[in-house]
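Lab meeting, action items carried over

1. Structure of the two-component assembly. Owner: GW. Status: complete.
Input record:
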Amino acid sequence: MTTLGTAYLVMALLSVLVGSALYIGAARSKVSERTASLIAWARHGFGLATLMTGLASIYLAFFFVQRHYEIDYVYHNSSAELPLMFRLSAFWSGQEGSFLLWAIWTGLIGLVLVRKAGRHETAIMPFYGLVYAFLLGMVVAVKPFAATGGMRTDGQGLNPLLQDYWMAIHPPTLFLGYALMAVPFVFAMGALARREYREWVRPAAPWAIGAATVLALALSMGGHWAYRTLGWGGFWGWDPVENASFVPLLCGLALLHGLFLQRGAKAPAQRTNIGLAITGFVAVMYASYLTRSGVLTEFSNHSFSALPHAWLLLAGLIGFTGLGYGLFLWRFRGIPNPPAFDSFTSREFGFGLSVVILMIAAVLVAVGTSTPLITGWTGKPSTVQPAFYNQTMAPLGFLMTLMLAIYPIAARDGLPWSTLKKRLWLPLLLALAAGIAAAVTAKGQMAPASVAAAVGLAFGGTLALTLNVAAAWRIGRSSGLVSVGGYLSHVGFGVLLVGIVCSSLYSRTERVRVEMNDKARAFGYQLRLLNRGVEVAPTRTQIQIRVSPAGGANPGLLSPAAFTLHPSMARDRSGNQMTAPGIHSTLSHDVYMAPVEFDPGSWESMPITLKPGGEAFQMGPLRIFFMGIEEIGQQGAMNWGVRAFLHVQRGKEMISVAPEINFQTQRGTIETLPGGSRINVDPNTGFDGSMLFDLMGPNSRQRDPYAVVDVTMKPLIWVVWLGMILTVVGGLLSVVRRLRDNRRRAAEGMDIAAPLPSEAATHR
Amino acid sequence: MSRAGIWGSALILAFGGLGYKAFQKSVTPYVSVPEARASHDIVQVYGAINQAQLHFNRQSSAIEFPLTDLKHNTMVVHYRGVRPGNMAQATHCVATGQWQGDHFEAQTLLIKCPSKYQGEKKA
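Predicted assembly:
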């Protein structure tokens, strides 16, 4: 059964290699009939490869859905009690499935690419085949269909953090973005191979915009998931795993601005764009290496653990880097390099500056993320704190907002300052008002650097936002909705910055201990614990906390005065505790409650440490002998725990008890002893020698439950989500527009390298 | 050099300088216990957790435990964030924080456990 899955993958790999070889033959063939025949067979090869990859994916999904725990990958990432959606999404929760997901996206995109590439097909598809073959090779190497070597009735379960709607759809989106980033790369490689440096720009543009948009969507989903699930109150933590995907996004954004620049009549930035397309794909490969090889395991809370075939990933990274930059440098001197711009108020200058700023950001984030590797070479591995990113990205963000503000109103050949001033005065006034408001509210509340960041980003964000809204309105009315994509994305970026300033710099947190009375206070609210915790999933305990105004509370716009929050705590298979917040959203702010500590009301007890086979523990008339333990389940399994065997003597009476503890749920059994005392295994015990027990006397009482929670007021967090949505919608509209333009040009038989007559007009 | 090259180079130099300065200020090396004690900056200490003396202070919501580095120097760590649930099984951890008076105040704890998600799997 498992052999069939592997056979599908090997057939896919062979098919794509044959297909690529046929494409190379077609590219070199001088006889047109032979070329057509080779292309037709090469397409069949790619089609077969995608079909085989699809069958392998369906086969693996079938094993997950039908609970086939004899498959090693299914066993380690799923369990019987999971609902269908999470049994399916467990497919891409580990290394094996996520590589397969990346491969199937690459296959499907390849099918579209061969139909859209036109005369570029034979130049780009051999390179695309190489990318596809590498991914299939990785999948074959990591063996998603390997058997466990025995029948198993249940699996080890899916990480509780991944049992979330957003985490079910985030990875497919991210890997779609990764797969799309290969397309501009292969167009650039094809351009280098053919020495045609202008013709690839228009057909590659929709793919580059699509890749950046999908990556932005994936990161937005990840951010939203982090905010709603992780409980640390933010949506972006500058963690290596987040950064690893952020760098390709920045490269993709730089590339699409570079491609816009090259569409001008003089076609500048030809070298730059080839370099950017290669760098974007190398960044994707580097991101995969950083997060999957295990090199950052010591430095990130999120990265996958070490991949057994990390060397193959490293070989791929080195291979594609060498191939891409090698060919680029070989051809470098032959690539035309016309001057980029004539005027500082021209759109060309804006595009060029955007490329530089985005690439500076990409390099800084890449350096920060790679710090453990770089410093490791000097013998003292180090990491950078989030302050590094905040201090460098804030001024870059400010500069970017100024660019976004000025260049929507600039024209291809520059606008006179008098016209610029006419269009600038009202947005400038609004931006000044936002900056002053930020200064007044921030002063005294935060560090001077944060005040400067708040003022700068509020000013720049508002300026960019208003000017791009005006430009989108003007262009939308004259040229239709699909023409406003770029402006809408820029509006989204402005909105996002304003949201980040408000929700991050102005958020305030208080830590409070909440009990079943009304004494706890935070931000003018009174907080009351309503329950002793409810087990809502096998390892998840949910608590209920009633929040009501107690004078001084800001209930928020359009919000009920009192509400109940349901934060929860869960454990993953390694026993790590994870917290999920309770969130109450209003139009003006979110009340965000993250649990820190929860005690459901333990019994008054005495902790005792017992040695197996050692001396008896004596308490009054009771003598307790610790005979030994039995491990339950396997380490990492949902039922993993221990059973302790005790002999208890009271006078002449001797009984045997066997209290158990489950290390995943931290719950165990309580055994009653002669005389009414009770004993349980302490959840914090080790078990490789002495063990810790809790002994309760016959009159011990149950303590009141309590929870320690962090309550955070987060102003205008919804503005962040709105900014993300607008950015992505704008990107999608841009893709549609570029596709339409290309179709129209093809239909009209126009020179693919010349600018559309309408373009100069629509941007004025 | 073209005008675009001059502008680009100026920006790259400016942000390269800013990045270098920010890097120097925020880079957090792995240090030993005596180095952490002597440092006024945020540092990271990798070491073994003394499970026998680990306790949770319910009043301050802080975990307190002795941490012994690879050169067998020991310091007391206080950590007030969300309690890592696998503290009981943890053998080692990376504490990131700053020396404060008589103890190391950790801002983050990265727990190293014997079991890892896929680390145990055979190739």
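2. GW to write a short summary for the group page. Key points so far: Residues 114-123 of chain B have pLDDT under 50 and may be disordered. Residues 3-26 of chain B form the longest helix (24 residues).
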